[in-house]
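Structure tokens please, single chain.
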Amino acid sequence: MATATQRTKVHTVTGGDGLRLHVREWGDPGGPPILFIHGWSQNHLCWAAQYESALADEFRLIAFDLRGHGMSEAPLEPEHYTDGRLWADDLAAIIEHLALDRSVLVGWSYGAFVICDYVRAHGEDRIGAINFVEGVVKLGSAAFGTLIGPGFLDHFAGATADDLPTNIATMRSFVRACLATPLPTADMETAVCWNMAVPARVRANLAAREIDDDDVLRTLTVPVLVTHGRADTVALPAMAEHILATCPVAKASWYDGVGHAPHLEDPERFNREIAALTTRLRV
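Here you go.
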């Protein structure tokens, strides 16, 4: 079997306001598409346990670096990050450029905001299903401490400070806080690296938005899977409960003893569930 690296295709896609986005795909080019959207201060590498798995034998797997992250363009001015339409147009441009039809959108943490931005602006017609993975759908003072927990709040000041040693120490701690069970040392080190690839000012700009996605959640009609770890201290389990109470088509998959990264902490189960969700769309 060919390795995921040998089957990788790399794209540069022009997103909202002309910003260049780094996009990669793996797997069967004729298979059902799954589009992975990472979270705050991450990049496409966080999905390695998916694109280097047996999922690549059956599905077309796509991941990209959000604006300001990884290998995508990263201007520092806040206006590139505070307009929800730009995030929506980024995702629309990728879907159009890669000719994706009825994709399953998998949004980790902040990735849920991007999915909701897209649906609000472009509708559901090109979406097959949605998987909110520790998805965050509210951002602002009312959510802090109730839906968004200390795993994020305790690290925000250090993550956005204009001081490199503080950033490094904070992101090392943040990675640990995301996980109920530590990953192998090499994987932990790589996770710190991908977090550090994001400028501190970009991290601050992302959190400057006031977001309430209830309007989108109430109107979704495609299947929605809510994947959430009961030990998450970043997006508290109350966030998932809110999605389930607000979105009439949402169904839960709870992970006991798992933190903010079920796709990393229990990839075998996670991959089975995303495969099942995608396969059901083709029946």
